[in-house]
Each structure stands twice: as C-alpha cells, then as structure tokens.
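fwd from M.: "can u put these together and see what the complex looks like"

so here's what she sent:
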Amino acid sequence: MSPGLYAPHSLRNAVIRFAGNSQDGIQSIGGFLARLAGRTAQEVMTYMTIPSTISGGPSIFQVHIGSGEVLHAGDEADVLVAFYQHSYDSHLGALRDGGVCLYDSGEVKEVRHERGIKHIGIPFTAATVEAVGGSTRDRGKNMFVLGLVCAVFNLDKEKLIGIVSRQFGKKDESVLRNAMLAFDAGFAYEVGDLERFAFEHGEAGDGHRISTDGNQMLTAGLIAAGVRYGAAYPITPWSSIMESLRAELPKYGGIYVQAEDELAAVSMTLGAAFAGHLAVTGSAGPGLSLKMEALSYASMAELPIIVINVQRGGPSTGLPTSVEQSDLMQAIYGSHGDCPRIVLAPQDVEDCFYIALEAGRLARKYSCPVIILSDQALSSRIEAFAEPDLDVHWVEPHIDLSTRREDYRPYPLDRTTQHAPPGSRMSSGKYPVISGLEHDEWGHPSGSPKMHSQMTGKRRQKLIDAAAEFPLPKVHGHQEGDVLIVGWGSTYGPIKESADRLPAEGFKVGALHLRHLHPLPNGLETIFNRYEHIVVVEMNDYGAYGYGQMATLLRARYCNPAIKSLCKTDGLAFRIREIVTGVEKHLAGAG
Amino acid sequence: MSTVLPSATVTEPEDRLTKKALTADHPTWCPGCGDFAVLNIFYRVLEKLQYPHEKIVCVAGIGCSSRFPYFMNTHGIHFIHGRALPLATGISLSRPDVHVFVFGGDGDGFSIGGNHLNHAARKNVKLTYVIMDNFVYGLTKKQTSPTSPIGFKSKTDPTGSVDRPINPMKQLLASGATFIARTHAAQVKHMEQMFERAILHDGFSVVECLSECVMFYAGAFDDSTPRKGGTFEAVDETQHDVTDEVAAFKLAENLAPGKFGVYYQVQRPTKNDLEQKWITDTQAKTGGVSQKDLLRKRLEAMR
C-alpha cells in the first residue's frame, strides 16, 4: 500500500517523539518539521533533551504540531519513533494509550504489546544503507525517518524538501544527494496497515511566520535594540547567543569579544557601556555568580548593560543541559550591597525578541543593569510565530557626544544619570569620573553619611519609577474566583493550558504571567485579592520554609497568606498534568 | 562603525592641554610616595602630545596607584580590583577614536588581575598600561604582594615572605605584550621617555615603574636609587636588540635591581585592527544593505 490510498485521518494536534542518540541527527529532522509547521500556518512547540557529553548518549526531540494554539511540547506522545532498544525501553511509557510506535527493527528486538499501542517495525538502518549505498553506513537514517513521517502525516513534501535543501545546500553536493535518497526511500516505504493522518489547515494570519528557538530570538532582539558590542565566555546553554553575536555583529559594524573568563566578559561589556554603547554580556548561572562583583559596580556606577542568564539546573555545575528557574534570587539580590537592577523574563520564544528590546530601552532610560532570565527550555525549543515588524521594532544605535552644559554632573541627585561618554566635551572644563566608590554628584569619592543615604535613594528611585511604568499583566481565564495560577518565564504555555483545563473540574481559574520580575508592576495586589488561592508555579525548590523563590518574594511583598507554591526540581519542563494535579491538591487543601 | 564618530578634532590654541587643565583632586597619596612623580610625568607627556582633551581616558582598578583617575581631569573610570584591563579593552575596541590609559599597582596587575594581563597582552589591544610597582599592598596597610621579595616581613608574613615573587619582565614577555619597558619613579627623565615611547607604540604597551611606598616598604628601591647609594643602570639599546625576545628574557634574569629601559618592542597587528578588518571585509560582502534590512533578511531565513 502506498501513501494516499486511504483517506487520511484528520488531526488537530499530534505529538511525535524521536528517541535515539545525540549523533543521529534527530535534532535536525525535528527542526525541519518545526519549520515546516511554521510555514504551513500551524502552531508548533518542540522539546529536546541532549546529554552534556560531546558525542553519544541518549537524546530525544519531541515535536508538538497543531492547527490550534500549541502552548506546550506535549505531556504524552501520539507517535514514538525509536531508534534503539534503549530508546524504546525508556520512552514507551511516554506514548499514549493506543499510540503508534515506529521502531528500527534492526535495533529493537523486544517489544511490549500493551495499552493498545500499535507497533510497526521498519529496518531504518538497513533500508537507509540500501538506498544510499554501503559506504555511508547508517548516516542518513534520520532523513529516512523524515521521509517516513512525511508520508504518514501527509506533510507538504515539496515545502519540506525545500527546507531540507536550504539546510544541506551549504554543504557538499553529495550530502544533499544522499539525504534526498534516504528521504525518498523513507517516503516510499511500505508501512503495512498503518493509517494515514493529515493536519487540519491552520488559520493563516496576515504576514509571515517564522520558526526558531529562544536563543536566536534573543540575538535578533538584541540587534534590533541597538546592541553592537559586548563580550562573553562560552557556557551551556548560553553559548549559541554569543556565537551568533560574534558572527553577526561585524555585519552591523560591531564587535563581540570572546573573553578569557566571565569577569573579563562583564568588564569588557561595562567598558563598551562606559564608552557610550548599549552592550550585552550573558552566561548561565555559574557565570552569573562570577560576574556579581562587576554587576554591583554597574549599579553603583550607573552603567547601562544587558545581562542574559540562560538558566540551567543548579547549584554549582549542576545539570548543564536541564532546565531550572533557580537563579531568580541571584538575579535580583545576588551582589554585595544595595544594588538596584531590573530583572525581566521572556514567556516564550517570540517574547525573547520583545524582552530584549525592552531590556535595551530600560537600560538606557534608567542607566542601570537589566538582567534577562531565560532558561534552557526556551533556549533550545522551537516555536512558530509572527515575524517581528522591524519598521516598528528597530532602534538605531546612537552615542550622545554633544558638548555638555556648564552645569553637567554625572550623578545628579535630582535626576536619573545619563553619562557623558569619552569624546564629549565639557563646557565647565571639568571631566566626569565614573566611580564604584560612593561618590558625590561629580563622581568624586565621598564618605559623607548623608551623601551615601542620598545616593542610595537616587539609585533606588529607578526601581520605583520602573515599577510605575510597567504594565499590569492581564489575567487569562476567570478574572476572579477559586485560584490564580502565577508563573514567570518559560512556563507560560503549560500554565495557560492548565488554567484552560481546570475549569472542567468546576473551578474558577485564572492565570497570571509575570514578565517584569523586579521591580514588580504596581497593582498586583488588586488582582491577588480577587482569588481564594494563589499558586505560584516555578521550577525551583521549596526551600526551608516551603515556598519557591518567586512565591517567597510575593509573600514578602504582599503579605498575602493565600500565596502558595507549586515547585519541582527534576530538570524537566512542567507537564500540564503536573500543574493540574498540583493545583487541585491546593484546592483540596492538601497542597 | 555602527555609529558615526567625529574624526579627531584639531586642538584650538585656547584649548592647549596644560598641566593646569589636566589637574583634578589633590592626590590622597602619602607625602613622599613615588606615585606623585608618575602623575607629574604623565601630565608632562600629555602636554607634549596634545591629544584633544575629551579623547583622553584614564582607567584604573583598586589600590593606592589606582586612585589615578580622580587626580586627572579627563574622562575617567575607577573600576573594581584587578579588572581594569578588560574594562579598558571594551573601551579601546569599541571606541577607536579615544586614547586609553590604564594605571594600577602590582596587586591589581600581577595578582588578582593576572589572568587579564596575559590575555589583553596576547590580544595586543591598543592601550597603554602603567604598573606602579611598590612590592607591597599599601592601601590595605602592608600585606605581601606578588612582587614582594622572599623574606619581606608584612602583616600576612610576620616572619618573612616565603613565596617566590613574580618576575614582571619575564611575565610580560611570556604574555605576548608588544611593548615592554621598565622604569623608576625617582628617574623622571627616564620615566618620561618610557611613557612617551609606550604611548606612541601601536599596540599593547606596558611600563613597569618602580614606585616606592614610603609608609610600608621604605627603601625598597634604594639599590637602584643613586642618591641612596644604589646604581641606576639603563638598557643600552646599541647593545640590546629590543626585537630579540631571547635577549629580553636574558636581560630580565636578575631584576635586583636589574636594568631600566625598553626590554622588548615589536609590531604585530592589534586586535583593534584585526576586528576592524573583519568588519570591513564582512561589510564589503553585504554590500550597502541597510542594517535594518540585514536583520530583516535574517528573520526571513527563519520563515
């Protein structure tokens, strides 16, 4: 039976999990599928795990494609593609009852017929070798599988081949030829009595849609925000941002420096900021720990920089390729002294672009460090969304080197600092010194108790002003009722989906997502007061007192005993089921 | 450049840079400190070079000598301990139109900031770095420094230091700095020559300047101070080839008191120039596409 003989079964959503080893190229085929979904007006969210070893080790790539809103990477897979016995054994449990398991019959020898799962054994390896020729061994079996999936799901073959060609087109001609031989073999493979599926058409909106991951969108957002300089040190999962900036910024006349260590990286970035540029550094948690002294300096000296923390599992070296939200307190308070800075968190891949723009604007306006808390899940997952309109979202870099007026002071007590970078002439003939010692309005050291209080107040005022300008986030779902689920960062999708499912149990549920973490926007208490329970969902630990990091801050800020925590620390993104069950427990009074 | 920077302005006669115009706060150093002479000679060299006032940037970390930017009426930045060089790197690379001067001590340069010295030097970042070496931690009142000799009694080594001190010249030679000189705060003429040559060098130029701490290590440099009975021996450049790295290492073998002068100077492309070349080459390929369209194309490729 060849594809297309049967009328395909219509689908709104499907979750496909590819399980293999990290060198099998399952990330690339997952990426192709995600991009295809974006191009065919479908929603997509991906999820992957990679081992923190250089080569080898089990790895998965999961793609959730849907014609409606896709808010999470899927709790359970509809289809499991298993490359090895260990992949099969580890991931069969992730397949839903009655799901389909496609496995490499040359590798997977023992299958368990359970829960109505349909097993289809296909010799991925042997068929690929046969199609491509012996010399390549099993390289290309990922493309064979892509061809197979394309046939089973009636995907747009022409568009998919276009995406693949563009990717392989940069390489040697034979690479593309072999890839297409494997793809065609998979596409034409007789899979027996497996039914065929087809996605309902998505609702195509106006304008173009793009598919990419969070780190690429942060990079694009930084460039749009006017960032042209900075420095960093490689660390997972931040590295791909610095790699992109290093390669891209020269096109824009800028320079991104690979520094000798994390302290040098933040210091070079501060140098560029002092020189009048909007500059960025970034890292993961361990690197942020090292940068802390210089970040305290940035608050004191009032220098505008953007600092990105792509969070991973901690403490210490922790889990480099897993996700956690355990650097919140570090972001807000993690330096010596009272050092005000702004902390933001993007809620999904699309938001990475807009949060970078906002960080740039705030850093300039308040002349202070702005930390963006992304995480490992956001860094690597692919989503499809509307292409940003650069005619609206574009900041032209600019250095103000105008001659400063007679009364210019770098640290005026009655205004926000706006530095005069080198190259600016001073009408007064007095040149400013930027200082990390407590200083007077001219930047010269001052040990005066009164001056320290006044300058602390001046720096604090930035947070008060920022809180007043931050928009109050909108509640999704019930505007008052039984429970408000509060989250921040990459948990936006799963929380929203959970809030939609819970009313089925008869509860009035709202969901609130925070993008401005420090300072918090004014007026949140008016929202909190409308709910019986407030459950803060976050990927960090309950701590000694039973509350996660954001919940601790919210309880201290609002003194509202209804604020409770739903935390986890397994290094994996929240599943819908975990949130729904956790919130239900709180509602039952057992939380 | 992504941002249009004005070209170096011509100095108007009324703007002539004088010591008076360059002077800011009265130094907080102790009377008799060697650093006063360093400051005065730096004023003098700047008066001679006549760079536009607004284009001079003084950078420092932490230490007595690192208070330098407060005493200079120029754009200045007083940073954290040991990190002045990476900060200065950020300024130098992103602002080719300004002159970057870094000042610090032996603790800042060779101890807490040792790693940065190696990397700023090997990258050949365009800037001038003056290390005022007094063989002691003075600001924190007499602890052992990385250049304190064995046997030096300090609050952290009450029975005398036991750790072998750094040999600054060897350290700098190994780091890949392209201009390395050694001078003495009590020899102002020599110091002036070294500063001027360092500043005019196109690349990472570093000068170690022995500068006595009269409070916590008085007499440290008597053996190279003629009026205290020592001998000040300058490097004879008719005998020493400054481009010969091996000869420079030989010259650095015994620095007690050792010789003073240029140990090493070679021309190697600066990081500033290499990065600028990458920018120029890359932009030649993108051929006049606006920056906004460049990013637009990148987003379009994600469709």
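replying to her w this: DSSP finds 18 helices and 23 strands in chain A.
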